[in-house]
Automatic annotation (TrEMBL):
It comes from the Eukaryota. This is Enoyl-CoA delta isomerase 1, mitochondrial. It catalyses: (2E)-tetradecenoyl-CoA = (3Z)-tetradecenoyl-CoA; (3Z)-octenoyl-CoA = (2E)-octenoyl-CoA; (3Z)-decenoyl-CoA = (2E)-decenoyl-CoA; (3Z)-dodecenoyl-CoA = (2E)-dodecenoyl-CoA. It is found in: Mitochondrion matrix. GO terms for cellular component: mitochondrial matrix. One of its GO terms (molecular function) is delta(3)-delta(2)-enoyl-CoA isomerase activity. The keyword Chaperone does not apply. Homotrimer. It comes from Drosophila willistoni.
Length: 279
């Protein structure tokens, strides 16, 4: 398979480390537990660009087909889980590339939210917008203190599509989800725990991964097929909706993102991020 030829396989202690040639993600399988840790490593902020999204897709597929016992999603950056979509993909976009970009984001969501293996996110840093989408696509979330998580799209003058809302709603009560989305609210770790956006707090990344592993281990005595089919039935309507509307969703996104007012807003937001980075 093409994917196999892109992978290098290394052994670290009892763990197998698979990394893509471009190294935007690594997959490390713990030989004792059979759990795969998928790490995003795109400096400086794990911005989800086309290449990172393609890598994520491939890694998730790899984990599914390797029959890993579970998937833990995390980041190699010590303070950022993911800064969400790379705004440079949406600002003054290239016509063909932006299509591939959005299609890849759809692929990642369908693969992660619909994954047949148990999934957990070790959120070891800030997790705005697309970062929050990834985390809420998993079944369990453990976050480190003093970071923020949320869908802040309205703060940027953009709108989170329905399937972003589906993931959010699979975690939060409707009233809290609706208000947070309308406000574009970012929750601190403590606030996220209080509303149920995350399940646990851990003091270190290692502890977060241990807690995620314990969650995945809680299914050890459950029939894997029964568990996977039950999970998929819970998520089927959300997944089917995007499957049915993929093309329309892409066209809506392209129309929206190309509006002059949206382009202006994204430009100003990028400038403000760059100014902040200089100070
Ligand atoms: C009706 C239905 C219609 C449907 C229409 C659909 C519309 C589109 C929907 C799109 C959905 C999702 C949107 C997103 O995910 S947008 C991204 C949102 N993300 C953010 O707002 C986060 C912004 N970043 C930050 O808050 C901070 O950077 C940070 C993550 C908290 C990290 O802080 P830091 O102090 O550690 O780092 P900082 O100095 O800020 O940044 C370092 C460099 O990285 C650049 N950068 C940061 N974030 C992004 C990003 N998301 N994209 C691109 N670049 C980013 C930043 O500019 C710095 O760059 P440089 O070093 O100055 O060059």
């Amino acid at each position: 398979m093409l994917r196999s030829s892109l992978l290098t396989l290394t052994r670290i202690g009892s763990n197998r480390l698979m990394s893509t040639a471009a190294k935007l993600t690594t997959v490390e399988v713990n030989d004792k537990t059979g759990i795969a840790t998928l790490t995003m490593c795109r400096p400086p902020v794990n911005g989800l660009n086309l290449e990172l999204l393609k890598d994520l897709s491939q890694s998730i597929d790899e984990i599914e087909s390797n029959k890993s016992r579970g998937l833990i999603l995390t980041s190699s950056n010590p303070t950022i889980f993911s800064a969400g979509l790379d705004i440079l993909e949406m600002y003054k976009p290239d016509k063909e590339r932006i299509r591939a970009f959005w299609t890849s984001l759809q692929d990642v969501w369908l693969a992660l939210y619909g994954s047949s293996v148990p999934t957990a996110a070790a959120i070891n840093g800030h997790s705005p917008a697309g970062g929050c989408l990834l985390a809420t696509s998993c079944e369990y979330r453990v976050m480190l203190p003093k970071f923020t998580i949320g869908l802040n799209e309205t703060q940027l003058g953009i709108v989170a599509p329905k399937w972003f809302m589906s993931s959010f709603l699979s975690v939060l009560p409707r009233r809290i989800a609706e208000r947070a989305l309308n406000q574009g609210r970012m929750f601190t770790t403590e606030e996220a725990l209080q509303v149920g956006l995350i399940d646990e707090v851990a003091n270190t990344k290692e502890e977060a991964i241990e807690k995620c592993s314990a969650f995945i281990g809680s299914f050890a005595k459950v029939n894997p097929l029964a568990r996977a089919l039950t999970k998929q039935q819970f998520r089927a309507a959300d997944l089917q909706q995007l499957e049915n509307e993929r093309v329309q969703d892409l066209e809506k996104f392209l129309f929206f993102v190309n509006q002059p007012a949206v382009q202006k807003g994204l430009g100003l937001y990028l400038e403000s991020l760059k100014k902040k980075a200089k100070n």
